[in-house]
Design goal:
Blueprint: H1 10-19, H2 28-40, E1 65-66, H3 78-86, H4 94-101, E2 105-113, E3 116-124, E4 132-140, E5 145-150, H5 163-178
Antiparallel strand pairs: 1-2, 2-3, 3-4, 4-5
């Protein structure tokens, strides 16, 4: 389906986003996607556009470590995810589960700071694979979800529960249970076929035919 906002200039896009109290930073295609998402969900958009945009207080980025190298991370349980989603009248999030299962998470990093675990992740958008969203989640020592935020249009904190946040939570639950989690496959992990010899489909010749 053609974009309904693609013809707009960047100043026009930013002016429209300001009406929703949305972020106005990013490249044009990001602004277009964000505005279209807000227009689709206009019934649940924030009415107070004058207040400051919420941003989680996160630790210094240099304190984060790749999750695979920090086995002390306690993760969160499936029951805690259900408890978190129940606050928004949701029992589960199939889209978030599918995004996690299908490898939309690019990486996850964690750090323990001020008695809380902080998770930072990058999750690919479902419709435009070149777009990715940064996700932040704060988890308490009781494994409860304390705060969350995402860069997508529906990811305003402190209680973001979009599919990208849910995908990260499912990854945390898997890590707690299995000690690992699924990420996007790298080029070296994917099956490479470009350098393989083509299969021979002809019939073998008898030795006498070469004479």
């Amino acid at each position: 389906m053609a974009s309904s906002c693609g013809h707009m200039t960047i100043p026009e896009l930013r002016n429209e986003l300001e009406k929703f109290g949305a972020k106005k930073s990013g490249r044009k295609w990001e602004l277009v996607e964000r505005l279209e998402a807000y227009r689709r969900n206009a019934h649940c958009a924030r009415t107070d556009v004058s207040g400051p945009e919420f941003m989680m207080m996160t630790p210094d980025p240099q304190l984060y470590k790749d999750l695979h190298s920090d086995k002390t991370f306690q993760g969160c349980t499936a029951s805690e995810i259900s408890t978190f989603l129940s606050k928004f009248n949701k029992t589960t999030d199939k889209k978030g589960r599918d995004m996690y299962t299908d490898g939309f998470i690019q990486y996850m990093k964690v750090t323990f700071h001020d008695s809380h675990w902080f998770v930072r992740s990058s999750v690919k958008a479902s419709m435009i694979k070149s777009v990715k969203y940064d996700v932040d989640v704060m988890i308490g020592q009781d494994r409860s979800v304390v705060e969350s935020q995402c860069e997508c249009a529906a990811g305003m904190g402190p209680d973001a529960h979009c599919k990208h946040v849910c995908a990260v939570l499912f990854a945390c639950a898997d890590f707690m249970k299995l000690g690992t989690y699924k990420t996007e496959l790298t080029c070296t992990q994917k099956l490479q076929t470009f350098h393989r010899a083509k299969p021979h489909k002809g019939s073998p010749l008898k030795a006498t035919q070469h004479c």
